[in-house]
């Protein structure tokens, strides 16, 4: 049966992998993939060599049994240390290489894709292509076997998601512009046909509508509006090409008026049209044949038409002369299209350029038709006087005439201005004083002064912006450009010019100026405006002793986690709510500014006493601590606040006070947050030390200074080693050993906590695999690694755990991940989903420090923990005669939930015996040995196994 089965399966040689570089935006796989024709519904493929150099065999069965589909095989390799996300795109239709006779009019290309390893490719919903999401794990080589729905595969590309999105958006914009131009052109020619009625106009309009329909089909616009199957789309495409050939023939016949040259032209054209009309019906039964004949017809019409146009133009026919440039472009377009469908022009830009060129040709045809339609009119003949031309230009510009008769002191403005201002006709006509009364009060003196200067100098040009009041009280901005007219006596007799409405431009300018010094989200002043106001306040403070400005710097604690939990839109709503709260706490002389993100700055002028300033800051802190309601949930926030009082530090200027307040805020955050700190000179040195520590920590992983220590966990039944509790520490070259609590907050602030977490997870899994290979016992030896930061509990952590468990052969549930109660109570729903995913991957779960928090016992049955770790506070005094009531309850709870329990902090043999009597299974502490390095842990296990 094995030989019989192997005979039914199609076997293929191993494929060469294609390297996927992180910076590669697109990779053409069309010529790289291997094509196979299976002899049955099962295909066997030799995969590309993996990172271990081994070539494996993969058997894939077709989606429908009993079929013999075509297959393609290709391999991708990711030699980087990061996971790569890519998009595989196989378009349903591609003009390039589609063919002239029996063309490939498109269809769904890929039915399914199977990966030899890693995450299964997922299909994206798309109308014009088969698109699959592909994930390449770090250092992996994955072979993909794709079942084809059709034998042809015109193109296969591997795209970087953002690059494909940008390309799609760009093409969508381009296609929208082309369709818009084609639609407007078709509508315009239809209107011209209604107005003029000559036979050339319906012919041109029909051609424009045919091009519009063809563009909508080719660009997939109809597929977006209506659910059209690929097979149906083939019919529409073939019919559109046949209609395009027919309308092109009709336009040539109507424009050249061939019926007047010979009756046989009419007969020949009519027969050809009947034939093309039959092609439209044939498209429903055999679309490739209909499309092939239509394409040949378009080429023939273009060639014969060019010969006719040149022939008639040589005989002095004006219409033919006007059509020569356009028809020559059509001949060039047909040549380029022929080269494209035959596969000689292969660039991706060519099909879109061809469609744009076709619309351009129709646009030129429209211009030619319109030029012919309106030939002979007065405007076309140029019978316009210079005065009329100036009047037409003024009317076209939309400006308003301004005329001031100086001698009569009478102003005349166009009625368009009075209509814009909703004033009665003649309301602005009259003396210059009446016109000035309609201006904004701030602009009147400047306007009068400018006019007086022009009258005195009797020359020059007048350019002035001012505001005029409308009937509803609204002001509009106008720009006056005028010049004086000097009489025979050398005096100014008139001032004549134009008024242009510049309200939108001035509003935009004011908005830009406002946005330059204000926060775009909240409308509050930004850092630049706050520093400008602080500079002014310090100048006043130097002159007036009673003025003592204070700078307060506010920063939210842990707001990054809030953004990740609720999303950026909700985070913006929270920022608006908090900005309004803080604004209500200030008095008119105070200033609040948003520095960006979750930071604010305050210039406090209303309070000068230090006690009242601190009380104000505490009021700010309590205001932020008030829960923010969002939907059906409440979000609790905390803030670190720094204060820079006016005094010696004010000598450093406004920048120094803001910097000092920021240093005080950072000091408050360093001490746990949710507190207020007043700047002291010594904080600057502390800040420098903090910066030095941050710089050392950034290089600690590269220098292998982050290490792990292992504390034995003992089975109380037989006192053998059951596992190790793993904890990271930093072997600092100057400060010595730093525990996780000392450097994890710094790592969170500078954003490298994820790298440290990945390192600890990778090293723990590697050591655990080594232990299990050297010591095969049941149950297997395990390791517990407590997540030392809440920021590690993210979706990316799932991928890290999956990668580590796949890379190291550890027994299921033997790599136990510990979680503190506080990490689960911040976002219970999200935490529950993450725990379930981790358990499904094969990781064990430990509820660490149980009994010291506020974790609801009712939630225990819904969370997939397999182990509880009782906190050392319940174990420490167990051997001193204390009552173990709470510890007994915890052990009983674990037993009821079918969970193992580890007692932490066992310091002597008496405590260990008491725990064994209570039914506790595992224990850890100094009674069983001190924490040790990885090398010592290996030796310890070897000695234990040898002794056993």
TrEMBL record:
InterPro entries: Biofilm_reg_signaling (IPR052155), EAL_dom (IPR001633), EAL_sf (IPR035919), GGDEF_dom (IPR000160), Nucleotide_cyclase (IPR029787), PAC (IPR001610), PAS (IPR000014), PAS-assoc_C (IPR000700). The chain crosses the membrane at residues 173-194, 200-222, 234-256, 268-285, 292-314, 320-341, 353-374. Coiled coil: none annotated. Residues 462-514 form the PAC domain. Pfam families: EAL, GGDEF, PAS_3. PROSITE patterns: EAL (PS50883), GGDEF (PS50887), PAC (PS50113). Keywords: Membrane, Transmembrane, Transmembrane helix. The keyword Secreted does not apply. Residues 547-681 form the GGDEF domain. Residues 690-945 form the EAL domain. This is Diguanylate cyclase (GGDEF)-like protein. It comes from Pseudochelatococcus contaminans.
């Amino acid at each position: 049966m094995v030989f019989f089965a192997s005979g039914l399966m199609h076997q293929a040689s191993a494929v060469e992998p294609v390297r996927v570089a992180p910076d590669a935006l697109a990779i053409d796989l069309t010529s790289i993939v291997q094509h196979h024709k299976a002899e049955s519904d099962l295909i066997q493929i030799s995969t590309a060599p993996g990172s271990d150099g081994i070539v494996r065999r993969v058997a894939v069965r077709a989606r429908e049994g009993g079929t013999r589909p075509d297959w393609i095989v290709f391999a991708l390799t990711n030699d980087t240390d990061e996971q790569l996300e890519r998009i595989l795109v196989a378009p349903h239709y591609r003009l390039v290489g589609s063919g002239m006779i029996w063309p490939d009019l498109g269809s769904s290309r890929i039915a399914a894709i199977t990966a030899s390893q890693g995450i299964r490719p997922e299909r994206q919903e798309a109308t014009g292509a088969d698109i699959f999401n592909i994930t390449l794990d770090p250092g992996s080589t994955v072979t993909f076997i794709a079942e084809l729905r059709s034998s042809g595969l015109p193109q296969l590309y591997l795209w970087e998601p953002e690059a494909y999105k940008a390309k799609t958006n760009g093409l969508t914009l381009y296609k929208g512009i082309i369709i818009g131009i084609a639609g407007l052109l078709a509508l315009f020619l239809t209107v011209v046909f209604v107005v003029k009625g000559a036979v050339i106009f319906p012919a041109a309009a029909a051609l424009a509508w045919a091009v519009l329909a063809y563009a909508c089909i080719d660009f997939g616009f109809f597929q977006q509006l209506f659910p059209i199957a690929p097979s149906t789309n083939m019919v529409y495409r073939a019919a559109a090409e046949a209609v395009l050939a027919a309308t092109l023939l009709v336009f040539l016949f109507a424009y050249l008026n061939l019926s007047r040259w010979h009756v046989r032209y009419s007969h020949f054209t009519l027969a050809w049209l009947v034939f093309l009309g039959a092609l439209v019906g044939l498209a429903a039964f055999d679309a490739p044949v209909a499309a092939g004949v239509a394409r040949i017809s378009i080429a023939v019409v273009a060639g014969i038409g060019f010969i006719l146009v040149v022939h008639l133009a040589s005989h002095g026919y004006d219409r033919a002369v006007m059509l020569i440039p356009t028809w020559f472009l059509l001949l060039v377009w047909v040549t380029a299209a022929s080269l494209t469908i035959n596969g000689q022009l292969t660039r991706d830009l060519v099909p879109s350029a061809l469609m744009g060129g076709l619309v351009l040709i129709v646009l030129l045809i429209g211009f030619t038709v319109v030029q012919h339609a309106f030939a002979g009119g007065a405007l076309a003949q140029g019978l316009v006087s210079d005065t009329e031309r100036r009047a037409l230009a003024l009317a076209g510009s939309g400006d308003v005439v301004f005329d001031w008769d100086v001698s009569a002191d009478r102003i005349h403005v166009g009625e368009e201005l009075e209509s814009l201002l909703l004033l009665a006709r003649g309301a602005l006509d009259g003396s210059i004083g009446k016109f000035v009364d309609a201006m904004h009060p701030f602009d009147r003196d400047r306007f009068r002064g400018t006019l007086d200067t022009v009258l005195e100098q009797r020359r020059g040009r007048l350019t002035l912006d001012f505001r005029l009041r409308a009937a509803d009280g609204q002001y509009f901005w106008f720009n006056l450009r005028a010049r004086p007219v000097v009489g025979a006596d050398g005096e100014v007799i008139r001032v004549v010019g134009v008024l242009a409405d510049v309200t939108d431009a001035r509003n935009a300018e004011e908005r830009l100026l406002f946005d330059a010094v204000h926060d775009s989200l909240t409308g509050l002043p930004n850092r630049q405006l706050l520093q400008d106001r602080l500079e002014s306040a310090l100048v006043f403070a130097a002159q007036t002793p009673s003025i003592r400005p204070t700078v307060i710097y506010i920063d939210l604690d842990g707001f990054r986690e809030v953004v990740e939990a609720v999303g950026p839109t909700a985070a913006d709503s929270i920022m608006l709510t908090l900005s309004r709260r803080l604004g209500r706490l200030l008095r008119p002389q105070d200033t609040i500014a948003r520095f960006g993100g979750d930071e604010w700055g305050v210039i406090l002028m209303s309070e000068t006493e230090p006690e009242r300033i601190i009380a104000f800051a505490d009021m700010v802190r309590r205001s932020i601590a008030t829960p923010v309601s969002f939907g059906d949930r409440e979000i609790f926030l905390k803030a670190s606040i720094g204060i820079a009082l006016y005094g010696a530090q004010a000598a450093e200027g406004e920048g120094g006070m803001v910097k000092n307040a920021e240093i005080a805020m950072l000091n408050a955050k360093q001490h746990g947050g949710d507190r207020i700190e007043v700047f002291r000179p010594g904080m600057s040195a502390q800040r420098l030390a903090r910066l030095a520590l941050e710089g050392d920590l950034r290089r600690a992983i590269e220098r292998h200074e982050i290490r792990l220590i292992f504390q034995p966990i003992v089975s109380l039944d037989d006192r053998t080693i059951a596992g190790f509790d793993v904890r990271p520490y930093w072997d600092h070259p100057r400060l010595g050993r730093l525990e996780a609590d000392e450097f994890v907050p710094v790592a969170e602030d500078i954003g490298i906590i994820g790298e440290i977490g990945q390192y600890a997870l990778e090293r723990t899994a590697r050591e655990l695999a080594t232990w299990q290979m050297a010591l095969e016992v049941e149950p297997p030896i395990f390791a517990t690694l407590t997540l030392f930061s809440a920021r590690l509990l993210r979706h990316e952590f799932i991928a890290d755990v999956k990668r580590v468990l796949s890379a190291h052969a550890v027994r299921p549930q033997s790599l136990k991940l510990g979680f503190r109660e506080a990490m689960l109570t911040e976002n219970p729903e999200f935490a529950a989903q993450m725990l379930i995913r981790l358990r499904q991957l094969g990781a064990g779960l430990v509820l660490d420090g149980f009994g010291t928090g506020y974790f609801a016992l009712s939630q225990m049955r819904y969370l997939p923990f397999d182990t509880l770790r009782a906190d050392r506070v319940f174990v420490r005094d167990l051997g001193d005669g204390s009552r173990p009531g709470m510890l007994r309850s915890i052990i009983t709870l674990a037993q009821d939930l079918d969970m193992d329990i580890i007692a932490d902090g066992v310091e002597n043999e008496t405590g260990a015996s008491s725990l064994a009597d209570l039914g506790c299974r595992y224990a850890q502490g100094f009674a069983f040995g001190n924490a040790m390095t990885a090398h010592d842990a290996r030796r310890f296990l070897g000695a234990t196994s040898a002794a056993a």
